[in-house]
C-alpha cells in the first residue's frame, strides 16, 4: 500500500501547471499579489527592518530578490526575509485551520524560481501545489485547540501554526526545485523533522507578543528551501514521516489526525480556493466582529465621538487575555487587540502599516476609544463543531453591540469580509488590488505619489498575467516598486 508520505510527495512533484484549473491559477495570482503587498507594507516596521538587517549580515550569493532592499541574497536568506516581512502586519491571508502560510509558500517558491531561472508558470504551479500541501497537513492535524462536546475548552498543550507554514514551504520548494519522487520523499522527511517548536499555547497565554508571534514565517520558508536543496544534493530524511504510530502529527503535539482530510480530493479539490483575505491588518479572529462593526458604522453613519461603549462578542478562540487587552504596548500585541482594531477602524486609519505607526498607537483619541471596548463571548459560536468541516472552520460568528446616541446598535457576522464561501464576503479582484495599493502607500482610491502609483499598477498587471511571462519580469517590477517606495520614504524623512 502506498504510504501517506509517498502519495503526497508524488502529488507535489508530478503535478504540472497544465493540471491546474483556471480558477486555481487565478486564485494563485491573487494570493501572490496580496502576499507581496503585505511584505512591502512591512518594510519600514521595526520587525521588518530587523529582517532586512539580518539578511544583510548573512550576506550570500546574490541569487534572489529581497523585498524592500536594493541587495540580492542567497535563496535561503531571501526566503527568510520575505516570508517574515509578509507576516509582520498580520494582514496576510488566513487558511481556515487557524494559520497563515501564503507567506512562506510564495516566498520559498519565488527564491528558488530565481535561483533556477524558472518561468512564471513554474512559479504559479509551485505556489498552488505548496499551498495545497500546507492546507492538507493542517486539515490532517485539525484545529489546534481542545474540543469537548463540541465546545472549545482550551488550546492544545502542543501544536501550532508553524507546522503548516513549514509544510507549505516544503511542498512549494520541492515542486519548483523539480525534485523526483524519491528526492521529494526525503525533502518531506528533512523539512518535517526540522520544523519549529510548537509554541501556540505560550502565545495564547501571553499579552505581550514577541516579534515572530507564534512562529517565524521566515524560518519556516527557509526550512522549505533548505529541505529541497539538500534533497536535490542527495541528503536523506525520514521517508515515512507522515506514516505510522510516530508520524508527524503525533510528535508535533496534535491530539489526533484525519487521514481522509489529508488526501481526499487530492489534485481535484484545490485548497487555495478556501483561503481568506484580510481587509484589516489584525488577527483573523477579530475580523468577524470587525465586519459587523464596519456594517453598523456605514449603515448608521456613526462617528467615533458618538460611541460611548462597544461590546465585542468574540468566538472562543479570541477570548484569551491578548484579545482583551485594551491598551497594547507594542504593534505586535496590538494586532491581537479587539480594542485597537475597532479604534483604528472607527477613526478611518488606512488599513495597513499606519495602524501600527507610533502616531496611531499613541493617539489620545485611539487610546480613549480603546478604553470603551470590552470583550465577551458570542453565544452562537460556542459550539465550534457546528462550524467545522474536515479540520477547517467555515465562518465562526462574532458581533458587536455599539452604544451611541442613547441606543444600542447590534450586528453579528457569521462570515467575515474576505471569506470566499459567500458572494457577499468574497474579495473581488478590485479589492485585492486596492488593498495592495494601500500596503505600498496609496490610498483606497489608488491615489498617491506618481512613481509609486505607476510602479504598483505595473506590478499588479504583471502578476495577473504571470503565466505568460518569465519570473524576471516580476522581480524587476518588484525592485522598481521597492525603489519608488524607498525614495518616497526618504523624501518624507528629509
Structural class: alpha+beta
Biggest sheet details: 4 strands, mixed
How many angstroms does the end-to-end distance come to? 67 Å
In DSSP terms (H or I, runs of 4 or more residues), the helix count works out at 21
The CATH topology of the largest domain: 2-methylcitrate dehydratase PrpD
Question: What does the overall shape look like?
Answer: globular
DSSP strand content:
5-15%
Number of domains: 2
Question: Roughly what is the average pLDDT, rounded to an integer?
Answer: 93
Low-confidence stretches: none
Q: What order do the strands of the largest sheet run in, or round the barrel if closed? A: 6-5-9-10
Topology summary:
Layout: H1 4-14, H2 22-41, H3 46-58, E1 64-65, E2 72-73, H4 75-88, H5 102-115, H6 120-141, E3 145-148, E4 151-155, H7 162-176, H8 181-193, H9 200-204, H10 217-233, H11 248-251, H12 259-263, H13 287-300, E5 307-314, H14 321-324, H15 331-334, H16 338-346, H17 358-361, H18 364-371, E6 373-377, E7 388-389, E8 392-393, E9 398-404, E10 407-413, H19 429-439, H20 450-464, H21 471-493
Parallel strand pairs: 5-6
Antiparallel strand pairs: 1-2, 3-4, 5-9, 7-8, 9-10
Provide a descriptive summary of the structure in words.
- The protein has 494 residues and is of the alpha+beta class.
- The chain has two domains: 4-274, 2-methylcitrate dehydratase PrpD (Orthogonal Bundle), CATH 1.10.4100.10; 284-413, 60s Ribosomal Protein L30, Chain: A.
- It is built from 21 helices and ten strands.
- The chain has helices at residues 4-14, 22-41, 46-58, 75-88, 102-115, 120-141, 162-176, 181-193, 200-204, 217-233, 248-251, 259-263, 287-300, 321-324, 331-334, 338-346, 358-361, 364-371, 429-439, 450-464, 471-493, and strands at 64-65, 72-73, 145-148, 151-155, 307-314, 373-377, 388-389, 392-393, 398-404, 407-413.
- The strands form four sheets. The protein has a four-stranded mixed β-sheet. A two-stranded antiparallel sheet has the order 1-2.
- The longest helix is centred in the last third of the chain and has 23 residues, at 471-493.
- The termini are far apart.
Amino acid at each position: 500500500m502506498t504510504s501517506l508520505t509517498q502519495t503526497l510527495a508524488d502529488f507535489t512533484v508530478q503535478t504540472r501547471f497544465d493540471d491546474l484549473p483556471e480558477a486555481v491559477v487565478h486564485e494563485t495570482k491573487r494570493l501572490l499579489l496580496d502576499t507581496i503587498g503585505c511584505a512591502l507594507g512591512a518594510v519600514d516596521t521595526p520587525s521588518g527592518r530587523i529582517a532586512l538587517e539580518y539578511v544583510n549580515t548573512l550576506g550570500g550569493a546574490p541569487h534572489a530578490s529581497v523585498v524592500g532592499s536594493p541587495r540580492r541574497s542567497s535563496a535561503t536568506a531571501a526566503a527568510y526575509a520575505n516570508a517574515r516581512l509578509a507576516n509582520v502586519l498580520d494582514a496576510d491571508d488566513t487558511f481556515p485551520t487557524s494559520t497563515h502560510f501564503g507567506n512562506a509558500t510564495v516566498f520559498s517558491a519565488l527564491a528558488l524560481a530565481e535561483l533556477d531561472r524558472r518561468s512564471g508558470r513554474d512559479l504559479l504551479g509551485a505556489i498552488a501545489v505548496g499551498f495545497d500541501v500546507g492546507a492538507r497537513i493542517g486539515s490532517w492535524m485539525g484545529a489546534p485547540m481542545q474540543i469537548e462536546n463540541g465546545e472549545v475548552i482550551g488550546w492544545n498543550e502542543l501544536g501550532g501554526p508553524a507546522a503548516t507554514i513549514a509544510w507549505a514551504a516544503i511542498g512549494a520548494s520541492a515542486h519548483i526545485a523539480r525534485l523526483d519522487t524519491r528526492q521529494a520523499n526525503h525533502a518531506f522527511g528533512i523539512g518535517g523533522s526540522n520544523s519549529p517548536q510548537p509554541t501556540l499555547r505560550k502565545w495564547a497565554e501571553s499579552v505581550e507578543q514577541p516579534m515572530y508571534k507564534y512562529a517565524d514565517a521566515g524560518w519556516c520558508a527557509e526550512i522549505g528551501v533548505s529541505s529541497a536543496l539538500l534533497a536535490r544534493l542527495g541528503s536523506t530524511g525520514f521517508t515515512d514521516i507522515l506514516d505510522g504510530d510516530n508520524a508527524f502529527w503525533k510528535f508535533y503535539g496534535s491530539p489526533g489526525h484525519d487521514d481522509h482530510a489529508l488526501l481526499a480530493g487530492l489534485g481535484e479539490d484545490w485548497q487555495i480556493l478556501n483561503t481568506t483575505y484580510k481587509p484589516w491588518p489584525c488577527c483573523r479572529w477579530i475580523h468577524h466582529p470587525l465586519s459587523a462593526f464596519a456594517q453598523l458604522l456605514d449603515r448608521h453613519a456613526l462617528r467615533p465621538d458618538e460611541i460611548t461603549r462597544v461590546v465585542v462578542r468574540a468566538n472562543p478562540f479570541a477570548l484569551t487575555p491578548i484579545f482583551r487587552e485594551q491598551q497594547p504596548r507594542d504593534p505586535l500585541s496590538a494586532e491581537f487587540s479587539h480594542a485597537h482594531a475597532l479604534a483604528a477602524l472607527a477613526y478611518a486609519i488606512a488599513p495597513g502599516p499606519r495602524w501600527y505607526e507610533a502616531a496611531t498607537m499613541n493617539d489620545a483619541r485611539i487610546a480613549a476609544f480603546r478604553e470603551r471596548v470590552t470583550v465577551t463571548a458570542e453565544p452562537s459560536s460556542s459550539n465550534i463543531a457546528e462550524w467545522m468541516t474536515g479540520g477547517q472552520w467555515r465562518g465562526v460568528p462574532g458581533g458587536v453591540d455599539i452604544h451611541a446616541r442613547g441606543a444600542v446598535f447590534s450586528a453579528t457576522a457569521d462570515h467575515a469580509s474576505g471569506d470566499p464561501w459567500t458572494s457577499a464576503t468574497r474579495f473581488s479582484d478590485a479589492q485585492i488590488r486596492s488593498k495592495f495599493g494601500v500596503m505600498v502607500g496609496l490610498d483606497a482610491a489608488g491615489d498617491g505619489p506618481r512613481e509609486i502609483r505607476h510602479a504598483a499598477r505595473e506590478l499588479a498587471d504583471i502578476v495577473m498575467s504571470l503565466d505568460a511571462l518569465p519570473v524576471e519580469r516580476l522581480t524587476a517590477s518588484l525592485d522598481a516598486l521597492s525603489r519608488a517606495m524607498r525614495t518616497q520614504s526618504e523624501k518624507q524623512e528629509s
